[in-house]
Amino acid sequence: xxxxxxxxxxxxxxxxxxPGALRELGPRLAALGFRGRVALVQDAGAARHHGxxxxxxxxxxxxxxxxIDVPAGEASKCLAQLGALWDAFAAAGLDRxxxxxxxxxxxIGDLGGFAAATYLRGIDFVQVPTTLLAQVDAxxxxxxxxxxxxxxxxxxAFHQPRLVIADLATLRTLPEREYRAGLAEVIxxxxxxxxxxxxxxxxxxxxxxxxxxxxxxxxxxxxCEIKAQVVGEDERESGLRAILNYxxxxxxxxxxxxxxxxxxxxCVSLGMVAAGRLAVxxxxxxxxxxxxxxxxxxxxxxxxxxxxxxxxxxxxxxxLHDKKTRSGELNFVLASHIGEVQVLPVPPEEALAAYAxxxxxx
Length: 362
Ligand SMILES: NC(=O)c1ccc[n+]([C@@H]2O[C@H](COP(=O)([O-])OP(=O)(O)OC[C@H]3O[C@@H](n4cnc5c(N)ncnc54)[C@H](O)[C@@H]3O)[C@@H](O)[C@H]2O)c1
Ligand SMILES: [Zn+2]
Fold this sequence. Notes:
The chain is α/β, with parallel strands linked by helices. 47% of the residues lie in helices and 20% in strands. It has a seven-stranded mixed sheet with strand order 1-2-9-6-5-3-4, sandwiched between helices. It has a two-stranded antiparallel sheet with strand order 7-8. Strand 5, helix 4 and strand 6 (124-129) form a beta-alpha-beta unit. Helix 3 packs across helix 4. The chain is globular and about 60 Å long. The chain binds nicotinamide-adenine-dinucleotide and zinc ion. Residues 137, 185, 248, 264, 268 line the site of zinc ion (ZN).
């Protein structure tokens, strides 16, 4: 079992990583001083496999547990489900000493976390991420949100969890494609912050793909450490935190235009390939490093080229309307080496040219 502390002055919290960590849920909550009632807000897809274990750990530790099921899928990250959670919290009699526990992927963490951030002007919550993406990314950093018809994550709050329990055994029931999509974010951490970690991902590919516990503990732990450090230095996203968006400018645009075809991590993979190309064209990144990034993504079964062209105008439109875009100028995270990135302004035409290279056979 590995424990990582997210360094936030006065609000540090632990991420507990290991197979079977879910058994620690109830005892850890009790140790944090929670008493009485717990709302277990669970993604129906995750609950089918892991809901009973979560509930058992809570009840055995003496918590009066109310399980609340939310249908799986991004469509549940909406105002209607948020309202249903508030009503369920009231019906369950949650008070300020109660905790909300979210069980599932990034969808439930964002929705349940936002419900906790707003109920009674904010009650504590604990995350039990059960997708790789949620374990290495969504559960770290304290961003919670719901989507609006006008766009993703448009309403939300910063609300740090009191504890994160990343039970590696829960990943065994995750569809293979979801697992691989999460690996794109893991590879991202290597590119933006840690060349040695990137090298280990190259040499331990098979163990990582087979979900060997040693490899998994290392890659989830290192990813959380990198994200925790970035978030610790820039909790409210005024500067450094932007580097976490590596591969996301073009990636998000692809996701917006073709979201039924690709998972988020697959779009990030494509976005990283395009960002690598852009950096090489600028003379910022050595061709050999760009090739290593592309080869690693491919080796992990992630897409590195578009199988079908998407309309360039729609991609440009999506890039310019990204909520992180400042007035017509794109801020791009570009690698100068594996392990080091810079945030630089990029004219939209240059970004579009980099995007277009995703259609070229290489
Ligand atoms: N807050 C943040 O900082 C942050 C960061 C990245 C992403 N996100 C958000 O995360 C969401 C995406 O998260 P995701 O990729 O985890 O998707 P998800 O939460 O939608 O889960 C993906 C699928 O996996 C299923 N599932 C979850 N755990 C399972 C398990 N152990 N076994 C079998 N099936 C399981 C779910 O039912 C769902 O069908 C998006 O809404 C995104 O905006 C938030
Ligand atoms: Zn992402």
